[in-house]
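Hi all, long-time lurker, first post. I run a small reading group and we've been trying to get comfortable going from sequence to structure in the token notation. Rather than ask abstract questions, I figured I'd post a concrete chain and ask someone more experienced to write out its structure so we can walk through it together at our next meeting. Sequence below, copied exactly:
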Amino acid sequence: MSIDNIKTSLEKLRNTLESSGTVDSELKALLQSLDTDIQELLKSADATTAAAPASDLRSALVERAQVISARLAVRHPHLQPVLREIADTLANMGI
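-- Answer (accepted) --
Happy to help. Here is the structure in token form:
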């Protein structure tokens, strides 16, 4: 799994959120915050190709993505697979 995969998944999530009017504002804010934080992590990974970002930050983002994914599974199942893919990618890529 690569940084490009997670960028593609984030783009899918953003597009799905924009086209879906059914996501409540709290959940949308959580997803947007997660997206922003992951983008920052990816920028730092791009900037420091030799050194991986702190695993604590990556672990925290994976945990947040998994919590949000669980909420989506119940309330918005059409969004849940994309977020699960993002969490899995983050967990497996070792950035």
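A couple of things your group might point at:
The chain has one domain: 3-93.
Residues 3-93 form one domain.
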